[in-house]
Amino acid sequence: MGVRAMVGVAVVLLVNAASRLFRRGSGTVAGGRAGLAVDPRLLAKLAQSRHMALVSGTNGKTTTTALLSAALGSTGRRVASNATGSNMPAGHVAALVGGRGAPTGCLEVDEAYLGRVLDDTHAEVVVLLNLSRDQLDRMSEVRMLAERWRGVLEQSTTTVVANADDPLVVHAASGSTGVVWVAGGLEWRDDAGACPQCLGPISFAAQAPGWSCSSCGFARPTPSWVLDGTTAIGPVGRVEMVLGLPGVFNLRNGLMALAGAWSMGVPVEEAAAAMSSVIDVAGRFVDRDVAGTPVRLMLAKNPAGWSALLDTVADEEAAVVVSINARTADGADPSWLFDVDFSKLAGRTVVATGDRWRDLSVRLRYAGVPHETEASPTAAVALAGSGAAGRVDVIGNYTAFRDLLESS
Amino acid sequence: MSVLRIAVVYPDLLGTYGDTGNGVILERRAAERGIAAELLMARSSEPLPEADLYCLGGGEDGPQVLAAERLVADGGLRRATEAGATIFAVCAGFQIIGASFPDAAGNRHDGVGLIDVTTTKGSGPRCVGEVAVDPDPALGLSRLSGFENHGGVSTLGEAAALGTVVAGVGNGAGPAIEGAYRGHVLGTYLHGPVLARNPDLADLLLRWATGSGELEVLDDAAALDLRSERLASVGC
Predict the structure, then answer these.
(1) How far apart are CA A357 and CA B48, in angstroms?
(2) Over the stretch B97-122, which tens digit does the pLDDT of each residue have?
(3) Torsion over CA of B198, B22, B229 and A403, rounded to 10 degrees?
(4) Which of A163, A218, A160 is nearest to A186 (CA)?
(5) In whole angstroms, what is the distance from residue B17 CA to residue B55 CA?
(6) B129 Cβ under 8 Å from any chain A Cβ
(7) Which residues contact residue A177 at a Cβ distance below 8 angstroms, ignoring those fewer than 6 apart?
């Protein structure tokens, strides 16, 4: 142990030196990569003496990680977390080095890396949110991911905090010894229509159990955490969640985080109070200014995320700029635009922009949404803001959002 | 016909890549011309409804096998084809309407057999990327643009290729050809809402399904601009 610990410390110092060299602070991916190159077991060593929690799933990872980190920190302990969304091992190493001395770690984990990161960190709790189609040109098919999660979790003693509303997540978690089922909601059902256990038809219903397979009987487990309006109801009673983030989907993220914090021994009242302080998750939902126009910037990366977000902004009247890119980090194939019900934007001033504004324009035409087009995102914001006073809602997919955030 | 019935086949199993968009596009293009059209979402747990035009989309391996089994057992798609219905099948749907296709492990599964196409497991990497196709001149279409993402490769028997590949892979077995058609059955690896980029292909299907020789011209400036830009992205 002595030698190993010394090696670990030396590598940590090297990573910090590398980070300073890249002048990107103490928690950079570049530093993490350098550290892993020196010691491939670095993540395991950094996690060894900490209480670790992991958060994974297609949507809500960054927000839930922020909420869970706040909740875990409510006991006064420091929490190391990859708050910027760098969710692969290099980002995890960077985050834990940056939060050196913090007794708790809370990491957002890319779906495809969950097995490796769980092996390395021996996390006490893994929070599993949902699985749906995302970047199909480069990511695994979702059913394959669910199968891989199941294999990993069957071999682990971690407590799994799992969304009971998503059949793919339930399949992944049901081989585990300790599962806390949470009514985490499921906006997007089109990837869960075929039973993950037998491929039979899954039918969804409002009444209990909520969903079930008519062929094999695989069904929604009874959740021990549910949402009633803005109140979380769990094994220890009711607790009010006052979140600084909009939308039902964020309340559900909050419920998952609360159940995760409770599973790690944090009292729920303290956890809920700490979560209410989270108002800015990597720039999302925050009021900003793009070239003189007040905007609210929002991120949606895949059909499930768009569905939830369009519902959240549905009752508003502000002009909307939609910005779509298809760079490597977005996925090169924007076919998914036709999985999004853009007709929810009908009646508002809409401007299509981003690298793939032409794809979006054709999609909007078939959704029956009159719109204008403007290739430059900042010019599109100005165009949307020119018609009426007030804020413009700006929704972008990953790199489109990032670019607008940088120009705000 | 009174109402043009357009069925999206098994969106619960075959709808991985925004493919339901093809049904939506066909319905809209009919409606914009005053052709009464009805869009049916035909789920796999129900008997396949009668329709004039069927759209099949892509799907993951397990659901693809299940969709083929259910379509064979249902028999409705074969009966409709024999009665002259138009079939438009994309990606996994294209493989399903053929004679046979492989699953993830390489095991052979029977297709519905609407067109003489046999798909086997490709030996190379998955074919992923933009595609440009010069369609069979007999179809009277402009150069097609699409995106492919498939592992299987397809060999044509008694069926014509949809066209010649100018960029991308296409069917992937032997000559650089893409897709297949025979009668009013047409399959392609250009997945997702390929009809968004290729409005003339959408109208070809509508002419087949309605039996009308001429269709009112629609304003397709945005779609044609999109197609030009996508073709230019692969040097075409």
Answers:
(1) 37
(2) 999 999 988 899 999 999 999 999 98
(3) 170
(4) A163
(5) 13
(6) yes
(7) A157
Is residue A368 a part of any domain in this protein?
Answer: yes
Judged by CB atoms closer than 8 Å, whether chains meet at B149 and A203 is answered as no
The H or E element containing residue B142 is: none
Rounded CA separation A76/A270 (Å): 10
- pLDDT at site B100: 97
CATH assignment of the domain containing A239: 3.40.1190.10
Taking alpha carbons only, the member of B112, B94, B201 closest to residue B155 is B94
Shared-domain flag, residues A77 and A212: yes
Q: Which amino acid is at A283?
A: G
A141 touches chain B (CB under 8 A): yes
* Residue A319 and residue A218 share a domain: no
Which range marks the domain in which residue A162 is found? Answer: 49-275
Nearest residue to B22 via CA among B128, B71, B99, B93: B93
Is residue A11 domain-resident? no
Tens digits of residue pLDDT in A357-376? 999 999 999 999 999 999 99
First to last CA, chain A: 49
pLDDT one-digit tens code per residue, B199-232:
999 999 999 999 988 899 999 999 999 999 999 9
CATH number for position A399: 3.90.190.20
Contact A336 B18 (CB under 8 A): yes
Measured between CB atoms, does B226 come within 8 Å of chain A? yes
Q: Quick check: B147 and A335 CB within 8 A?
A: yes
A333 touches chain B (CB under 8 A): yes
Whether A136 and chain B come into contact, CB under 8 Å, resolves to yes
Judge if A216 and A354 occupy the same domain: no
Interface test with B, best of A328, A358, A372 (most B CBs within 10 A): A358
Q: Which of A215, A250, A275 is at the close of a domain?
A: A275
Q: What are the structural domains, with CATH classification, of chain B?
A: 4-233 (3.40.50.880)
Residue A21 falls within a domain, yes or no?
A: no
Of A184, A190, A281, nearest to A225 (Cα)? Answer: A184
Q: CA-to-CA distance for B87 and A396, rounded, in angstroms?
A: 36
Disruptive mutation site among B8, B66, B148 for chain A (greatest number of A CBs within 10 Å): B66
Say yes or no: B32 contacts chain A, CB-CB below 8 A.
no
**Gap between the Cα atoms of A80 and A76, Å rounded:** 13
